[in-house]
Design brief:
This protein is mostly helical and 83 residues long. It has a domain at 21-61: Orthogonal Bundle (Arc Repressor Mutant, subunit A), CATH 1.10.10. It is built from 3 helices and no strands. The termini are far apart. InterPro entries: Homeodomain-like_sf, HTH_SB, WH-like_DNA-bd_sf.
């Protein structure tokens, strides 16, 4: 009988935390003040790709609020879901 060790990388499964609106507003504030992406990234300790994404969405939609996401609507209404 052979045994195999199965390793699961949880970083692929786990969702990341969203940044607060205040942090996203701070990114845009620094961008409008003339700082570049790299400087904002270092100052706020946020990845460069996240900084680019925040600014791109701000330019496109004019807001830093969370945008609605796609996906299948829930089958159950919130009143009938178990807690």
């Amino acid at each position: 009988m052979h045994c195999q060790l199965i390793v699961i990388d949880l970083t692929c499964i786990m969702k990341t935390k969203e940044l607060t609106k205040q942090v996203r507003d701070k990114v845009v504030e620094k961008y409008e003040a003339g700082l570049g992406y790299k400087k904002i990234s270092r100052a706020l300790n946020i990845s460069l790709s996240t900084i680019k994404s925040i600014i791109r969405k701000w330019k496109e939609y004019g807001t830093t609020a969370n945008l609605p996401r796609g996906g299948r609507p829930p089958k159950l209404k919130s009143r009938t879901r178990r807690k």
